[in-house]
Every structure is written in C-alpha cells, then in structure tokens.
Write a structure and sequence with these properties.
The relative contact order is 0.13. Helix 3 runs parallel beside helix 4, helix 8 runs antiparallel to helix 9 and helix 9 packs across helix 10. The protein has a 10-stranded mixed beta sheet with strand order 5-4-1-8-9-10-11-12-13-14, with helices on both faces. A 4-stranded mixed beta sheet has the order 3-2-6-7. It has a single domain, classed as Ribokinase (UDP-N-acetylmuramoyl-L-alanine:D-glutamate ligase, 3-Layer(aba) Sandwich). By secondary structure, it is an alpha/beta fold. The chain has 10 helices and 14 strands.
C-alpha cells in the first residue's frame, strides 16, 4: 500500500495485483462499512508572482477509501503484513471506493451491495473537521450479510489473525450475526482481534472472541465501566472477561487517549504508555493501534509486546494527516520508547516491566 495516501496513485494493472508474500504475516480484516471520504484542506503552498503578488489559491480536495476496516488494513500493510479486506461495495460510492482502494494496492474480497456505501465530505480548512455532508451506509439485506459472513469465514482460514471491526452505523451488522461468526472462527481455532463497542463488543466477548480493543469512552457509554479511572476500567474489563465463554476472550485492551493503554487479562494488568506527540489529527489512532496489535500477534509477539507496537502505531498516526498511515521503520523504532508498567493483578501496584 502507498505510504502517502494523499498522493493520487494510478489504478493497478494486472501485473500490479497484490501478490502474497510467503514470509509476511497475513491479516484478514472484516470492513463492515467502508466509507468514501472527501476532505477539503487549506492550500499548503502560497505561490508568489515575480512582482510580489500572491497567486489565487484553491483548496486541496482529497478523496480516499476510508472507514475503520480500511484504516486498519492500511496500517497493517504499512507494518509489513499482507492484509485482505472483506466488505460490501455498492452504488456510485462503492465503485469509487473499490477503484481507490485497489489503486493503493489493497487486496479486496468485495460483497455485492445494493444499498451502497456511505460517503462523507469534511472541511478542514480552519483546522478542525466540519461535516459538510454525510450519507451513511445502507443496511445489508440477509443475502448480503450471508455473503459477508461466508467471505470472512473462508478468508480467515488462511490468515494468521482476523480483525473484526464495527459497523457505522451500528445497526448495519446485527449482534446475532457477529456472535455466530465469532463462534465459527473460534471453532476453527482462529486468532481474533476486535475493535468494537456497545452491543457488538458485548456479543464478541460473550461468544468467546480473543482480544477486544475498546476505548475508555466506549467502556462508559456501553455501560461496561462506572468511570474512567483505572480501578473502574479494570473492574469493567474483568466483568467483560468473565462474561465470555470459557477459554475464550483473552484480554480487554482499553485505550485512554493520551493516558496510555490498559491491557487487562484475568490475572494481570499492564499500563502501556507511548511518548507524548503533537496531534495533527486524532482520528485513526485507535484503528492504527488495532492494526499494530494484530500484526504483533501475527508475528508471534506476546500480547503486551503486541500492544506496545500498537501504541507506537497509534501515537505516530496522530502526527499525520493520513488516517491509518505510517512507516514501519519509524513505528518499530518508536515502539522501543513505549513504556510498559506492570500494575499487578488489581491495577493498583505499579512497577516497570
């Protein structure tokens, strides 16, 4: 995939079709609701004529394939993995999405989609994102859900790690469908990482999914935690672990914006803290973290080291304007500076690890 998503790549020829690398970890990503994203930015240059007058400037307009699943896949590829994206593509937005994603080098397993993908137009000329127009994704009908289910299931059998991402809006993926999929993937002994919230997160852990990544805001909003302090988040994460099928959910990874990441297992809590960085765009940090965790596990790292890699990917991504982008060398070197503290069993005892 391109490291520079703002560049306009050419559409790949048959010779440019992604080729699987035998030595690369393979990540299957379920992208339930890919979005076509249009972002208007202020000009980055100010041309001046010979007489000193300023040339009339026009805004920059960037059109990209986006949405949680595609951002996860983009970062996984940046970290040296081969990612295959399973998702619905349909309507005018779907045609553009597929062309743009394939131009980046993404390997897609598309499901036909009558309703059509979501589109948003955001204006960032003043610095913050202002929504100009948004059209959400249409619901998937039962045949489309069946096709997406089967596609993810089969592709996961050839992947080292499967990443399940949520739907936006949430009702596009019924919790019952997610539960069945997790059960089948678990029966096939697949390694699962999920970035979910609300009913989808609850369905995932109850079905015995492997690692759940969730933010502290989503813990509170979903009723999983009574507060956003460490004890409350640890208590909530442990309750989620206890709700899961026996031998299923391995850990809950709670991101806390600039306050580090809690890795909660049944017998231990670790706090993973990346060096502070200046934020250019906070969006995409969580998806980059999820990708880093998945790639780390696919490489054979233990969970805490995989989260260390994910924390580095997320921290560096916020310094960039391209969501889910980064350079492998930068991220891996930055990961060496990510601090890991063992907080003991209850999250109250600190120490360096």
């Amino acid at each position: 995939m391109s490291q520079q998503p703002d560049a306009m790549p050419t559409h790949p020829t048959d010779e440019q079709t992604p080729v699987r690398r035998p030595d690369a970890p393979r990540i299957c990503v379920m992208a339930t609701t890919p979005w076509l994203t249009v972002t208007v930015e202020a000009p980055t240059t100010q041309p001046v004529r010979d007489d000193g007058s300023v040339v009339e400037q026009h805004p920059e307009v960037h059109v990209h394939p986006g949405g949680q699943g595609l951002w996860v896949a983009r970062m996984a590829e940046s970290l040296g993995a081969d990612a295959v994206v399973c998702g619905p593509f349909g309507g005018e937005a779907g045609i553009a999405l597929r062309a743009l994603a394939e131009a980046e080098g993404m390997e897609l397993r598309g499901v036909a989609y009558k309703g059509g993908n979501g589109v948003y137009v955001h204006d960032r000329r003043e610095g913050d994102r202002e929504a100009v127009a948004e059209r959400p994704a249409a619901p998937l009908d039962r045949h489309e859900l069946d096709d997406l289910y089967g596609t993810v299931l089969v592709e996961s059998l050839e992947a080292d790690v499967t990443v399940l991402t949520g739907a936006d809006p949430a009702h596009v993926l019924p919790a019952e469908v997610l539960s069945r999929l997790v059960g089948d993937l678990r029966a096939a002994d697949r390694t699962l990482v999920a970035d979910l919230s609300g009913d989808a997160a609850r369905a995932y852990v109850e079905a015995g999914g492997g690692v759940l990544k969730i933010s502290h805001e989503e813990m509170a909003d979903g009723g999983f935690a009574d507060g956003d302090d460490v004890p409350a988040l640890v208590t909530g994460a442990r309750a989620l672990l206890d709700a899961g099928a026996e031998g299923g959910t391995r850990a809950v990874v709670v991101s806390r914006a600039g306050d580090g990441v809690l890795v909660v297992t049944r017998d231990r809590v670790h706090d993973v803290v990346a060096p502070e960085t200046t934020v250019a765009d906070h969006r995409g940090a969580g998806d980059s973290m999820t990708a880093g965790i998945a790639v780390g596990l696919a490489r054979g790292l233990d969970l805490v080291e995989a989260v260390r890699l994910g924390a580095a990917a997320g921290a560096l991504n916020v310094t960039r304007h391209g969501l889910g982008t980064g350079h492998r060398d930068h991220i891996e070197r930055f990961a060496a500076r990510v601090e890991v503290r063992d907080l003991g069993q209850d999250g109250r005892t600190s120490g360096d690890a």
